[in-house]
Amino acid sequence: MPPSTPRRLSLQQIVESRRRASFVGREAELGLFRTNFTLPPEDPRHRFVFHVRGNAGVGKTSLLREWRQAAGEFGALTASADESADSVPDVLAAFAAQFAEQGHPLKALDRLLATYRRALHEAAGRLAADNEGPGAGPSAGALAAAQAGLIAAGAIPVVGALAGGIDPAVVARGAGGLRAVFGGRARQVEEARLLAEPVQALTPVFVAELDRVADAVPWIALFLDTYERTAPQLDRWLADLFTLGRYGELPANLLLTLAGQRRLDPAHWGDRGRLVADVPLGPFTEAESRQLLHGRGVVAEPVVREVLRLSGGLPVLVSTLAANPGAAGEANATAVERFLAGESDPARRAAALACALPRRFDEDLVAVAVPQDGPHAVPGLYDWLLELPFVAEPYSGRSRYHAVVRAPMLRLQRTGSPRRWKAAHDRLAEAFAARRDAAAEGLDPERLWASQPWRRAALDVLYHRLCARPRTALPEALRAGIALCDQRPSRARYWARTLMEAGEDADDAVLREWGRDLLAAITDHGPRPTAALGLLLTRAELTDTDRAAALVARAWDRFRAGELDAALSDHGRAIAVDPRSERAHQGRAVILRSLGRYEEALADLDRAEEIAPAWAWAVRERGETYRRMGRLEEALTVLDRAHAMDPSDAVPLGSRGLVRHVLGQPEDALDDFDRAIALWPEYAWALVRRARVRTVLGDPVGALADLDRAEELNPGLPGTEGERGEVYRATGRYEEAVACYDRALALDPAYAWAHGSRAAALEALGRIPEARADLDRALDLDPGYAWARERRERLGARTGQ
After folding, report:
1. Alpha-carbon gap, residue 226 to 586, rounded angstroms
2. Contact between residue 156 and residue 556 where contact means Cβ atoms under 8 Å apart
3. Which of 388, 379, 468 is nearest to 421 (CA)?
4. How far, in whole angstroms, is CA 505 from its chain's centroid?
5. pLDDT by residue (tens digit) across 573-620?
6. 485-506 b/e with 16+ CB inside 10 Å = b?
7. Cα dihedral angle (777, 781, 787, 790), rounded to 10 degrees?
C-alpha cells in the first residue's frame, strides 16, 4: 500500500507557524503556565484560573495564544472566545463548536442550545396567540411575569407583538405565572425556564458535559480574551461556576484563563483568591525588546535605541518598528512614520493610513477607504495589509488595526486634513448604509435592531457619521439609541460604546461624555434601559417625536417590570408631548386592557387607528379586545378587516376561527383554522383549537391527529392534554378522558377548565362526590367560571346538596 501523501498546510497554518516562531519574551509567564500542568489539582500550588491583565498593546492576546499552544502540548482539550461572544449562550456555543472540531462534541449542550435558539425565534411571534379560556382578569403580578420572563434578560427583542401589541392578560390568564407565559408557545415545558433563565438552564448541562469529557482528556483549558469588554455579562457567571453547589461539580482538570485590562472584580472574585493566578503584564523589558529586534535583524545600536524610545517597550510597537526601524538619529519622527518607515511607496503609505479609518475592515471596505480609481490605488492592497504586523485577526473577514497603532494614525489624518477626514468617513458611512439596507431585506421593520448583521452595519454608519460631523450627527445617534433600547435593550451597550469611540477618535468632548455616561447607565442597570432613557430625556435636545418615542420605550420597560402606574404615566406623558404618537396610544391601551378597563383601552385604540389607519396591528388588537369583552359580532367584523389588511398573517385567521366557533359556525371556523395552519404549519395554538372544532363536527380521528401534531411541536402542555380529554369525553371514552385531565392537572394544578371538564367526565362515570369536588376547585380558582357554577348548581339540585 503506497504511503499516504502528507496533508498540505493551509495558508493560515503557515502564517501561524511563522508568528509562533517569532514570539519572544514572556519566559516567566510561559514557565508559570507550563508548571501549573505539572502540579496535580490537589496540590495547594495548583491554580484553576489564570488572569492576564495589562494595557492595550502589552501582548495579552499573543500570550494567550502561546498558552493555548502550551496547553495542547500537555494534551489539553482547548477552546477560546473573545468579545464577539458577549453572552453566556454565545460563549457556550463557541466552546461547544471548538470541542466538536477536536473530536469531543458536547451533544447534550448542543441540543439544548439548538432548542434555545429556535425558541428565541419562535417565542415572539407566538405570543400573539395564546390562552383563550374564560376567566377574570389577571393580577398585576401575573401581568409582570407574563412578559418579564422573556424580556428581562434581553433574551427576546422587545418589538412587534412583544413591544407593542400583546396584552399580557392573554398570556397571564389561565394557569397564571411563568407557565402561562410560555405554556402555549414553547416546544416543551422546560423551555419556559430556558427562555426566561438561559444561564441557569444551560450551565448545569455544560458542567455535566465538561465532567463527562474530562474523563477522556488529561486537561480542559478554556480561554476568554478581551475580558474587559465581556466581564459585565460573564463575571458573575464565571465566579458562580466555581461556587460549590451552584451549577454542579466542575472537573478538577479544568483550567480557565481570562485576559483583560483591569483587575478582577473583588465583589465576584474576592473570596476565590486561592483559585486565581494573577498575571500582570507590563511592557517588554529592554532585554526582551532587544531579543525581538535582534531576531528580526535589527542590530545597529543607534537604531535599536530609537526603537526602544519610540515603542516604550509595548510589544505590538516593538514588533511593528522591528519590521520598519527607520534610520538612526531621527529624534523627532512620529510613531506613525515609524510604523510605515520601511514602506517607500507613497501610495501604499497613504493607503495604510486610510485603512485605519474603519474600526474593522474586509476587502470591500478597503476598496471604499482607498478608491481604486483614485491617486492612491494600490494593486494587491488588501493582501499587503494582512501582512502588516499591527493588523489583528487577519483572514477573519473583520480585520483591524491594533488600537495603539490605529489611534495615532487617526489623529494624524484628523489633524492633517479635516476635509479628507470628513470625505473618507462619509464614503465609509455610505458603504455601511448599503450593507445595513441589504441586511434589512425580509426583516420586520420593528425588529431590525434585533438582527446582528443589521445592527452591526447600523452602528458603523453612526460611528462614521459621528466621526465626520460629531455635533450634526449626534441627534441621529441618540434617536437610534431610543429605537435600540426599545427593540433590543440587551445590546444597547454597543450603541453607547460606539458614541464613546467616535468621541475619542474625533476628539469631541461632548460626544465622548455622552458615550461614557450612557455606557455607565447601561452597565449599572443591567438589561433594563430605563436609566439610559432617563438620561436622554433629561439631557438631550430631542424633538417631540423623539421624546415621545423614549417615553414609550421606558413605559414598556416599566410595564414588563410590573410598574404599571409608572408605565401608564410615561404613556400619558408621551401623548401629552406628541398627541399623534400612535404607539403611545397603543401602549396605554394594552395596559388599560390588562387592567380590565376595556372602554378606555378602546378609546386609545380609536385614536391610534385615527392616526395610523393602515396599521394592521391596531385593527387586530381591536378585534381581540372585542372578543375578550364578549362582543363577538363586532370582533368578527374587525378581524375580517385585519385579515384583509394583511392576508399573510395567520393570527387574525386563528382568532377569527375561535370567534366563529363560539358563535356556532363550526364549518366556517374550520375553514379559518385550515387557512391559518396553511400559512403557519407550526401554529400549535390553532391546531389545538381546530381539534376542538373537529370534535364538534364529529371527526375525532382528525381531532386526535391535530393534537398529536400539537404535542409534537410543543410537548408536555396541559392545554393539549385537556383538549385530548375533550375528544375522549365527546366520544364516550370517559375513563380515558379522566386520565387525560389527570395528566393536564399534574402539569398545571391551577388549570380551572380541566377541573371543570374532569368533573363532567366523572359525573358521567357516576363518581358524583369527585365531580362536585372538582367543580368546587374550579370555582375557587376562577370565581367567574360561569359554566362550572351552573354545573355545580345543577349537580347540587340533583343530589339535594
Report:
1. 42
2. no
3. 468
4. 28
5. 999 999 999 999 989 998 998 888 999 999 999 999 999 999 888 898
6. bbbbbbbbbbbbbbbbbbbbbb
7. 50
When computed from its CA atoms, the radius of gyration of the chain, rounded to whole angstroms, is: 32
CA dihedral 206, 221, 523, 489 (to 10 degrees): -50
Provide CB contacts within 8 A for 525, sequence distance 6+: 531, 532
Query: Which cell goes with 580?
Result: 399623534
Q: Are 147 and 162 in contact (CB under 8 A)?
A: yes
Interhelix angle for 718-730 vs 734-747, to 10°? 170
pLDDT at 19 over 60: no
Collect all residues with Cβ–Cβ distance below 8 Å to 553 and sequence separation of at least 6: 482, 485, 486, 529, 533
Cell output for 343: 514602506
3-class SS at 555?
helix
Check if the beta carbon of residue 562 is closer than 8 Å to that of residue 148: yes
Return the bridge partners of 256, or none.
49, 222
What letter does residue 284 receive in the DSSP assignment?
P
How far is the C-alpha of 292 from the C-alpha of 278, rounded, in Å? Answer: 25
Burial 755-770 (b: 16+ CB within 10 A, else e): bbbbbbbbbeeebeeb
| Distances from the Cα of 274 to the Cα of 43, 49, 214, 300, 390, angstroms | 12, 9, 22, 46, 36
- Convert the pLDDT of each residue in 349-380 to its tens digit: 888 889 999 999 998 999 899 876 665 567 78
Q: Specify the pTM.
A: 0.58
DSSP tally for the chain: helices H, then strands E: 42, 7
Exposure b/e, 46-68, CB count within 10 A at least 16 = b: bbbbbbbbbeebbbbbbbbbbbb
Distance CA 480, CA 674 (A): 41
Q: Of 345, 340, 328, 348, which Cα lies nearest the Cα of 389?
A: 340
Helices (H), 258-345: 266-269, 286-295, 301-311, 315-323, 335-339
Do residues 55 and 280 touch, judged by C-beta distance below 8 A? no
659/642 Cα distance (integer angstroms): 14
